[in-house]
Design goal:
about 150 residues, mainly alpha, about 70% helix
Length: about 150
Amino acid sequence: MAVFAIMEGPDWGWSHPAILTLLVVSAVLLVGFVYTERRKPEPLIAVGLFADPTFSGCNLVIFSAQYTKMAVFVFGAMYLQDVLNMSPLMAGLPCCRRSLRKSSSPRFQATPPTGLVRAGPRCLASRPWASASPSWRSRSPGEAMP
């Protein structure tokens, strides 16, 4: 509902009753979700983890990076299509150019990922970040969210 309200807000007007209703209902549902999850014995999202400033900071940085990418890819492609009159295929190619260039570079092809493939499971199995405290840092990535 919130996404719909944000997407349609500029067209319908931010003071339109439907947009305001959707935003208020979304906020109420979010508060209800957090309230419910904090009281469950096995929550979908362990909301208490966000009390740790390091955990919250890391999630904020990742969210910001993903949001920035969305602005570049989505709105960049829309600009290329609407303003420069490119086809969807031609508008998508500049977004893929860096990825294609990286994967086709000789340096990338000369370094097989076998070492990383072998080291990753060993690192996860040894759990070098584990400590005696039951914080989120002592969990493996798959255990961080129950």
